[in-house]
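Service request form, structural biology core

Requester: graduate student, group of Dr. S.
Request type: structure prediction, single chain
Budget code: on file
Notes: please return the result as structure tokens.

Sequence provided:
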Amino acid sequence: MRKIKLKSLGLGLCLALVVASCGGPAYQQNQLEFGIEAAQHDLWDEAIFRWKKVIAADPDSAAAYNNLAVAYEKKGAFEEAEKAYQRALALDPEHEHIQANFKNFQENLNQIEEDQADLKEGKKVKKDETIKK
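Core staff response, request fulfilled:
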């Protein structure tokens, strides 16, 4: 009986240490990097999951909100992307990468809306020029 209590106590201490370390800066950096790695392999749902974990631990992480916005944009969740960009900019309004990403997002969204309007009117949508060989 005593061995069981000691094992339980040991397991409880290990879990407490793991839980205590979950919100630290090293954990958050690990989750940010894991999300980036997932995104580089087009695993957007995994990237979103990781960046949401960072935000849960640090709601003031402009980097996590920016990355989350990019992921939402890639998935076509434009409303969520815009909200995440807005939050990232509110947290770090001078960050050049966030500003550039948001500007590109707005331009892409405008183009999508124009293309959708053209399709409704029966017009052909402009395509990028490609090199054919």
